[in-house]
Structures are given as structure tokens and as C-alpha cells.
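From the pipeline queue, job 12 of 40. The input is one protein chain; the requested action is below.

Action: predict structure.
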Amino acid sequence: MIYPIYIYGSSILRKECKEIDATYPELGKLIEDMFATMYASEGVGLAAPQIGKDIRLFVVDGTPFEDVDPTAKDFKKVFINPEIYEESEEEVLMNEGCLSVPGIHEDVYRPESIRINYLDENFEEHDEELTGWPARIVQHEYDHLDGFVFTDRLSTIRKTLLRNKLGAMAKGKYSCAYRAKQK
């Protein structure tokens, strides 16, 4: 099933998500559908709140960036109940977009590397250090689980310049090539 993507202004995107356990109903099917939705929308990551679920789950596939960052090759993973517990002091500026904020791309500073603890789709625990595009993608999706979107990380002046565009988006004035909804 391809889910519609919730768009900026939807209240679900501002919720802090709940942890889940292996008894979550039809989790395997949800994960499969999240990957299908992400690919249909041409994304490289998708967090559960973006499809209306307030749970700590996201999926990623950084393969499209393997030409610019070899660490993104085969970086296809499921993150359940993730916790970023360490960030590098050095930050890097990279351009980001978001399926929930269609048509807007901005440069965002984020830590260059992170350490993250998470469960995979089999509820096996992992502890990893990520750098480059994998770290960027994970941090972006992780923000969704805490009720943030990438535009929250912009400078005050950039937010001011985007205010009208984001306001219009929140009122339903946007265009995207995938199924979307607001609530």
C-alpha cells in the first residue's frame, strides 16, 4: 500500500512519537509499505509521522547518493526506537528537502557524524557511527520522530523568507507528484 504523505501544517508532524515493541500490529507490512511509499515518492527516507503514525520508526535508503558518497551505497535500513546519543562538534552544511515540505530545498547545518542506537525490523539492537550522507539522512528522519521538520533548523532570516510559502503550504497550497494529505 502506498500511503499519502502528510504535508507541512499537519499536526502529526509536530508530535513527539511513542516507542513500540515487537507486538505492534502488522509491523512487517507497515515497514514494507513505508519503503514502497518512500520509493513511489522518490525519497531517501520516510518517518512514520509522515504517513500519519506517531511511532518511533523510520526507513532509509541512501543508494541514490552513492555516486557522491560511497558510504551511502547499500545504506538501506529500518530504525525502530532510535536514539542519537552522540554528535560530532563539527557541523557540515548540506542542501535538504523533505517529502512533507514539497518544493522547498534549503542548506542546513547538521553534525558531520553521529552515534545511534536502534532496533532493526527483527528487533535486533544496533549501535553505529554514521558520517556523510547516511548521517544526514538519519538525522533528518530522526527529527520527525521528535516533532521537527528541517525548516525548523534554518536561520531566522531564512525562516522569515520562507514564512509566506510555508504558510500557504499549511493552508493546502502546494504541488507535488505523489499522494499527499493534510490533517
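Job complete. The CA atoms of residues 27 and 121 lie 8 Å apart.
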